[in-house]
Specification:
The protein is mainly β. The protein has a domain at 8-36 and 63-112. It contains 1 helix and 10 strands; from the N terminus they run E-E-E-E-E-E-H-E-E-E-E. The protein has one helix at residues 76-82, and strands spanning 8-11, 17-21, 24-28, 36-47, 50-61, 70-73, 87-90, 97-99, 105-108, 111-112. The strands form 4 sheets. A 4-stranded mixed sheet has the order 1-6-7-10, covered by helices on one side. The chain has a two-stranded antiparallel ribbon with strand order 2-3. A two-stranded antiparallel sheet has the order 4-5. The radius of gyration is 17 Å and the shape is globular.
Length: 115
């Protein structure tokens, strides 16, 4: 995929995304709009006294239609569901994530695409 014509990256997650590019960090602030998957959950029993529900994943809510020159950054759950070329997510795989000394994610090295 050629992203040469992209001039806007819109973060549709609730968190700032920090992408570590060698000696620099590119920060993509949240846009204020968050895309989430609708889901329907139903009680299915208990596990050691704790209620358990079974959930069925629905469609994303709030994802804009594709626009020329725009890429949307969303959660990996949304990206896996829609599998669009203009929808990326932070790469939180072991190879792509950057963690602090306590193991918390502080950034990623790249974005990822699901097809």
């Amino acid at each position: 995929m050629n992203w040469q014509g992209i001039n806007r990256v819109i973060n549709l997650t609730p968190h700032e995304i920090a992408i570590h590019l060698g000696d620099t960090i590119r920060r993509i602030p949240p846009s204020g709009n968050v895309v989430r998957l609708n889901s329907h959950c139903q009680a299915c029993g208990e596990c050691d006294g704790i209620p358990v529900v079974i959930c069925k994943e629905g469609e994303p809510k709030g994802l804009p239609e594709p626009q020329d020159g725009v890429v949307y950054v969303v959660s990996s759950m949304v990206a896996k569901k829609v599998k669009r070329m203009d929808v990326l997510c932070p790469d939180t795989s072991d190879e792509g994530v950057i963690r602090d000394g306590k193991g918390y994610i502080i950034g990623v090295k790249q974005l990822q695409l699901f097809q």
